[in-house]
Amino acid sequence: MESVQGSCLDAIQEMDGLIKELYPICRSITGNGVRQTLQIIQRRIPLSIREVPSGTQVFDWTVPKEWNIRDAFIKNPQGEKVVDFAKSNLHVVSYSTAFRGKLSLQELKQHLFTLPDRPQWIPYRTSYYKETWGFCLSHEQLLRMEDGDYEVVIDASLEDGHLSYGEYYLPGESADEFLLSCHICHPSLCNDNLSGISVMVALATHMSSARPRYSYRFLFVPGTIGSITWLALHESQVSSIKHGIVISGVGDRGAFTYKKSRRGDAEIDRVFSYVLRTAGDNSKIIDFHPYGYDERQFCSPGFNLAVGCVMRTPFGQYPEYHTSADNLEFISLKSLSDSFDKCVSALDILDNNRLYSNQNPKCEPQLGKRGLYQSVGGQTQSRVNEMAALWVLNLSDGMHSLLDIAERSGYSFEAIKSAAGSLVEHQLLKELPVRSE
Ligand code: ZN
Question: How does pLDDT run across 164-182, given as a tens digit for each residue?
Answer without folding.
Answer: 999 999 999 999 999 999 9
